[in-house]
Structure formats: structure tokens, C-alpha cells
Amino acid sequence: MAHTKGAVVAPSGMERYLRPAQLTEALASLDTGSRTIIAGGTDYYPARVGKPLDEDILDVTALRELGRIEDTGDAYRIGALVTWTDILRAGLPPWFAALKGAAREVGGLQVQNAGTIAGNLCNASPAADGVPVLLSYDASVELASVDGERRVPLVDFITGNRSTGRAANELVTAILVPKPKRPARSTFLKLGARRYLVISIVMVSAVLEEALDGTVAAARIAVGACSEVATRLAALEDDLVGRRLLPDLAGIVAPRHLSGLSPIDDIRGPAGYRRDAALTLTKRALAELGVAT
Ligand SMILES: Cc1cc2nc3c(=O)[nH]c(=O)nc-3n(C[C@H](O)[C@H](O)[C@H](O)COP(=O)(O)OP(=O)(O)OC[C@H]3O[C@@H](n4cnc5c(N)ncnc54)[C@H](O)[C@@H]3O)c2cc1C
Questions:
Q1: How close is the Cα of 221 to the center of ligand 1, in Å?
Q2: Does the Cβ of 36 fall within 6 Å of ligand 1?
């Protein structure tokens, strides 16, 4: 490996570490060879401990155009460089409470300052806090390559444990969060072995939309860390529609509503405990949303 003009160059002549300031340059680099994308690096570097850092890297942190949160009229467009801290500081409507709640609980302040929402989704860990939240918002992922742009619903983007539908030459450029059609409220609840700096044992994100008559017009509830990919509770969502928005909404949650989950036994908790905790957190989320004004 040789060094020229400050860049690290492989014997093939390809620069091994790129940090372009232009999106076109970033996309072109992904098209000419296999590169590992890094943003905050808070998932990437811990996973490399003890292994040689011998990959060709595309560091996206200079792509300033990806650092914005924009109101596009019918949605919010969260750029791929937006960090958890950016979310906490952004003036977003109250129905973003679940995403702000997750932002407050991801890692510690240093991780929140560097870690991006897009990196959280692309890493596709079953315990990624952003995934159930963005599923409950019906979010989509925007991907770009030299061939153009496409949008994929998040539910289709994450295809398994640490696996996504991103093609090797694509960069995630943004996350699109549609605005709810009616007044909405949301919450995020996370259970870990301690209060902060902890990987989730279970997390629940819930969004309820309110009809004019005070009943639930639409419900979207997702549970994380209880299956390979966070899962929406479709049967519960259906059962909630038409109910009055009161704390006793929690009373309708039954074990059958969580039958689609497939928790595993691991170092953080046995499957039975996870299933039980998911039931409790789901009830708590609905009790909380039932009193919000
Ligand atoms: C101490 C510590 C505590 C943590 N606590 C939590 C926690 O409580 N909850 C939680 O969910 N996570 C936690 N994490 C994990 C991590 O911080 C988050 O997942 C974070 O959001 C990852 O963002 P990043 O920008 O650092 O991703 P990176 O590490 O830069 O990238 C992660 C993955 O996404 C890919 N990627 C990144 N950006 C793009 C893009 N624009 N397009 C395509 N691919 C991309 C990378 O190639 C890589 O595979 C923690 C990490 C640490 C070190």
C-alpha cells in the first residue's frame, strides 16, 4: 500500500479510503468496486475489533447534503447523515415522540452524537432501536446509485438478521417518514438490563391516530428484539381501531396478539422472559397513549 497526496492507495491504484464531498463522487466510487460504507462508525468499528481493517472504505460524513431533515409536504425526509442527537434537537411535531424517545436511549451521548439513523437501519441488527420505531411510522428508505433513485418500504428493506435489500452500488440517502393522516401520538418503550448504554432486550414503538369522535382511527405497533427483524402486531392494530382512546386500551392486549414474535434465548434474556416483557411493554405503551392529550 502506498500513500499519495494524503490518500491511501492500494497496489491496484484504487484509493482505499475515500471521503468525498459530492454525492455523485460517492455513487461513482460504489460503482467501480466493492466498498464498505461508514457513517458514524459506531456499529462498524466495534464489529472490527481484533480483525484487520483491510477493506476499501467510503466514508460518507462529508456529504453535507445528507445531513438535513426536511418537511416535503406529505412526509419528513431524514437525510442519511442525521444523527440521534440531530433528531433530539430538531423541532419536529409531537407525533415524533417515539423517534425522539429512541434517540434519547440509543447508547450514550457520544454514540448519539456520531451514530446515524440510517446506519442503525443498514446494520439491521434485531436489537436496533430505530427499526421498530420507523416501522411504526410506516417509513421508507431512499436509495441512490449511478443508475438512479428508488424508494423501498422499510418493512421490505430489512430482509433478515443484519441483511438488507441494498445493492452493493447503492447508498442510502434518506429515510422518508409519511405524515399521519389525522392527529397522532406515539411512544417508544425499551427494556434493557440497566437504564442507559444498553442493548435492548425488548422494545415497543406505538403510533395511534385519533378520529374526530375520539376513537382510534389507525394503529401501528412494532416490537423489536423478539424476532430476526422487528415485527408489527397486525392483529392488535386491527383490534384497536374503533376503540375509544383511553388508558384502558391496554386491557385488550392478549398473548395471541404477540404470537407472530419468535424471541430467542440469549445472553440478554430467555425467550419466555422476552415474550412476557413484550406483552407488558405493549400494554404500557397503550396505557400511556390512552392518556396523552
Ligand atoms: C457503546 C455503543 C452503544 C450502542 N447502543 C445502541 C443502542 O442502545 N441502540 C441501538 O439501536 N444501537 C446502539 N449502538 C449501535 C449504533 O450506535 C447505532 O446502530 C447507530 O445508529 C449506527 O449508526 P452509524 O452511523 O454509527 O453506523 P455505521 O457504524 O457507520 O454503519 C453501520 C452499518 O450501516 C452501513 N451504512 C451506514 N450508513 C449507510 C448509508 N448511508 N448507506 C448504506 N449503508 C450505510 C454501514 O456500511 C454499516 O454496515 C451502540 C453502539 C455502541 C458503540
A1: 23
A2: yes
Q: Are 96 and 130 in contact (CB under 8 A)?
A: no
Identify the DSSP state of 72: -
- Tally of helices (H runs) and strands (E runs) in the chain: 10, 16
Q: What is the pTM of this model?
A: 0.94
Convert the pLDDT of each residue in 142-187 to its tens digit: 999 999 999 999 999 999 999 999 999 999 999 999 999 999 999 9
279 Cα–ligand 1 center, Å: 27
- Sign of CA pseudo-dihedral 94, 171, 84, 186: positive
pLDDT for 225 equals 93
What is the helix, strand, coil percentage profile of the chain, to 5?
35, 30, 40
Q: Residue 85 belongs to what H/E stretch?
A: helix 84-89
Q: What is the mean pLDDT of residues 19-33?
A: 95
